[in-house]
Amino acid sequence: MSGWDIDVNGVDGALRNTAEAAAALKDELADYVADIQHAGTSAGTLAYAGTPEKGGNGGAGGSATGIIAGALGYFAQHTEEELLFVAARAGQSINGAHQAISEYIKGDLTMAARAQHDALRAPDIKALIARARKGGRP
């Protein structure tokens, strides 16, 4: 590890830019969920001849779910882990890089290497999902 030669100001700037992009990703994920929900409610339902139901928001009580809404729900459910992984990995990488550069500045290359190693571990998505479903922060 003694071969490290880091441009601290460059890393700091890159971390700031990456943190801003990650914050924007959080907003994009929220929009994604809202857009899927809106698309599902707007997609309509199937109604057979002679039935009074109409598709979409005009349905009886508005509670009928069509095949498009079902497919969108299935898609969203099965991509949840992948999207959370991207967000968690970004956060973990940013925090790990920040810790590593902090230790580097202090001259503790062993701790810098440990922080770098820890940042490379895959996030525990199952635990993040469980925490988010309980109302905690993912």
What does the model show?
There is one protein chain. This protein is mainly alpha-helical and 138 residues long. Helix content is 70%, strand content 0%. It has helices at residues 8-42, 67-106, 109-120, 125-133. The longest helix is centred in the middle third of the chain and has 40 residues, at 67-106. The two termini are 33 Å apart. The relative contact order is 0.13. The model is unreliable at 55-63 (pLDDT under 50).
Keywords:
single chain, 138 residues, mainly alpha
User: Count of helices?
Assistant: 4
Largest sheet: none
Output the helix-strand order: HHHH
Q: Given the helix and strand composition, which structural class is it?
A: mainly alpha
Mean pLDDT: 78
Q: Which term fits the overall shape?
A: elongated
Beta strands, count? 0
Helix fraction bin: 55-70%
Report the radius of gyration as a whole number of Å.
23 Å
Poorly predicted tracts of residues: 55-63
Q: Name the beta content range.
A: under 5%
Taking the alpha carbons of the first and last residues, their distance comes to: 33 Å
How would you summarize what this structure contains?
This protein has 138 residues and is mainly alpha-helical. The chain contains 4 helices and no strands.
Write the layout of secondary structure elements.
Blueprint: H1 8-42, H2 67-106, H3 109-120, H4 125-133
Helix pairs in contact: 1-2, 2-3, 2-4
